[in-house]
């Protein structure tokens, strides 16, 4: 059931207004904090107000403006879009609180929080985009809005990373635009509201090239190897930004774009016919394993997180590329599972850096006694990545393996297993170093980070467990993912 | 149904007479010439508006000057492409308003009346060029606007301006000669100078002279339009001229080459005697090359007006590519970009003019941080920048979208590729510009003390910036306006 409802457009718009107010609040700390939180909170409230309807199967649409026939800005909150926006707006509120604590003494806070709020707006714009053009517009805006965040420190290293980031992502964006143009020409529309719009009559070569263009375009942000180069170097950004880039916004809009391309532009039936997804799945499997191997050798905690992100993102791509309902479920829920676990780890890394100044894994000996709650949260996230049952990551691995078997491609289940081992190989040593490398001594005082940083860390860790334990509870995001899968596969 | 027929003649007569009288009016006090030329342009705008509404309602119409029938007398013909006079009048009026304060500082007082006279002459030339139905008449108007253009570049009287004007003059004169040659050949082949007449009589003409004529016309008009590599005259001329003149030159005068090409197409396709395939291929490549090279050069500029001048080359590239694709989408996109680019580029040049006027600085390095001192002007420039890159919902988007669709439609997806990546390049240097204005630390803190531009400059810039947005949101209006003309043009090709 479709309902015309301005809330679909209001969700991105309200954060935009708040962002303008953050910029306008000049150097007044109170108002800047107020509007930053308001931006995240207002959006969360709007998105959540649509959730009950969405769980009942209602789709909210709103057409904002039409430039020429069939080409315009329009919004549509379907199950997949709702899933992504529920995840991102929840995390945004948490990250904003964390950022306020983390950025306490940094210069240029107005610019930081202004663009931070703009990013909220653009991410939800991508989630609710009704057509490829709207999606492209918000996708590119997100690139622009995150650039000032990446270069926040304005060191030569940060500027260089920022430039690399722009070159990678803008080039990717150009491929997306190119793909949109060709899609419009072939299908006569760019809507994302159908389970596939392209006709097979357009020709196999053309369709294959279009698929490559769109996947390469979105794949830059989703960091599929070999398009991942920007991600580890963008680690110079302040930690809340890294958390944002790597867990919620940038990489996830890339993954989300790939889901939209596969499910709503091409459609499952057409892709099965074309056979291109076999290659994409193989590439994703390669990325999962290769990035994990690289991660093992990183001593810098944030760099290890970066390669872990690259590996985890390809779970989503692999799930989508397998083209079976169970694998698709895994792909969609992994948007949330990876986000909460990864952001927990980033929060931990940031808290450690802010309280002790330590950034590498080998320095962390005994940190578990100084910051017990923080490291407990880290352990939860690590167990989730390894795929221990009851934690969020297990759900993904389970459904993804089932999906691989359903598709008759059992070797991807082995990839899951190998990936679990590799995850254990690079996360458990961190936990071990933190808790067991040195004996607890009386001198070690508990010294946790400020509550604005510790609170968000713990909340995210709790979410990791909730997501893992409540899969079959009705009304949880999992239900949305199932609804999206049913629509896509016409079940 | 038709309005008073001589209205079409008045469209030319009013600004022409106005231009001639301007120095006389401004003889005692220069400011009078400003008021007078504004009045003239407003009157012309009213006439233009009536005519554009008319053509939208009933389609093309003509007026025979002095009652002499077509093959003998001069025919003025007004079609949808001629509606470019609307934007000519708009920019002309705004440039004159903008010049009020600008001219007072940029040039000696006794020169001011002549400056306005030249500006009016230039606009008259363009209006005449757009509405004439006679080939020789077309040449005459082209010369009027070119000659006044050379003088306008040099109007400040500085050495460097004279050099730029001289370079412009050489290239301009050569291209005019080439066009004249082509018109001569067409006259020899058909015995007529009336475009409609030439179109009818061209059938069966020998191929070789025809190829020379159309080749020469294209070459000449491409120089006027500054397609790469025939652009060498443009950057200096446009960057050194006074800013209101730059807006006119970059927004409108280069478009003369485009309108000229459209007339060439009308004759070629209408007669069916000329095979344009080879020329179209050349145009597509010229377009793609111009987009990429214009953007490439612009990336390395530090002078904002130089940057904008190179950006004009890229945008002309878009239009030329759209023409060369010869598909309906491409043609419509190109024609509308003639309008939209004029508005966008005028926003940028007048905005840059206001910055230079207030700060006395013209490089990105020196202007760093100016966004805090002149928020309105820089906001308008930012809108212009977003627009020229082609980001929705602004004026630049619709055209580029249509041209890209045209490339795919014509079976040349490679050119859509060139277009998109050209836009990426353009995006990069406009980001540099906006980034410098807002985010870079000022080199000289004094720039933060600068005040906002005076109303006579700020208001035109803001009007243009809002038009950039309006033309984007209501993008379908100009598209559907120009569509019948393009369909008519491409009809001989099987509807395009």
Commentary on this structure:
The complex is a heterodimer of chains A (491) and B (496). Chain A is mainly α and 491 residues long. In chain A, 73% of the residues lie in helices and 4% in strands. Chain A has one domain. Chain A is globular and about 75 Å long. In chain B, helix 10 runs antiparallel to helix 14 and helix 18 runs antiparallel to helix 19. The mean pLDDT of chain B is 88. Chain B is mainly α. Chain B has a domain of 221 residues. Chains A and B meet through strand 2, helix 5 and helix 6 of A and helix 18 and helix 19 of B.
Largest interface: A-B, 24 and 27 residues
Largest sheet of chain B: 2 strands, antiparallel
**Distance N to C terminus of chain A:** 16 Å
Mean pLDDT across all amino acids of chain B = 88
Give me the number of helical elements of chain B.
21
Q: How many domains make up the coordinates of chain A?
A: 1
Task: Provide a quick synopsis of the model.
The complex is a heterodimer of chains A (491) and B (496). Chain A is mainly alpha-helical. Chain A contains 20 helices and three strands.
